[in-house]
Specification:
The chain is mainly alpha-helical and about 160 residues long. Helix content is about 95%, strand content about 0%. Helix 1 runs antiparallel to helix 2. It is rod-shaped.
């Protein structure tokens, strides 16, 4: 009976040690789980902040693209007006050459001025069109980034 009692006590001690080991492992796993939860929450917050930042950038780029489109339209209209003026100046120039109007120098000066204005408008419109294309490319990049973020969120 004493031997059996000693054997049972030994088994109880072993089970208590095993139980304490398992409890330690459980506490470590619980801490690790809590750390992982905190880490995931931080990552989710960071991702949300990034999405908001991207959305703000998208809105800003959209405004810039609209502004560039409006500017391009305005410059196209101005370009068309200057082309009409240039045509009128050319007609006037031809009329002056045939002796129907004022001096040839004044017509040449008007034509040169119109040409300078036209070249300035063309240069400005090219710049605005380049900005518009750049804005469209940026919007495409942001859209691709948002798609990637959606995929990351799904994963």
């Amino acid at each position: 009976l004493k031997e059996e009692n000693a054997s049972l006590r030994s088994k109880i001690n072993k089970l208590q040690i095993f139980s304490e080991t398992q409890a330690d492992k459980m506490r470590k796993l619980e801490r690790k789980l809590e750390e992982n939860k905190i880490k995931e929450e931080k990552e989710a917050q960071d991702l949300e902040a990034m999405v908001q930042h991207v959305e703000q950038n998208l809105q800003l780029m959209t405004k810039r693209a609209v502004k560039a489109e409006n500017n391009a339209t305005k410059l196209k209209q101005e370009n068309a007006l200057l082309q009409v003026q240039l045509k009128n100046y050319k007609t006037e120039n031809e009329a002056l050459r045939s002796g129907q109007s004022a001096s040839l120098a004044a017509v040449k000066q008007n034509a040169d001025l119109a040409l300078q204005n036209l070249l300035t408008i063309i240069t400005n419109s090219r710049s605005s069109i380049k900005q518009l294309v750049s804005g469209a490319e940026s919007l495409q990049l942001v859209a691709d980034l948002l798609r990637s973020i959606d995929r990351i969120t799904e994963v």
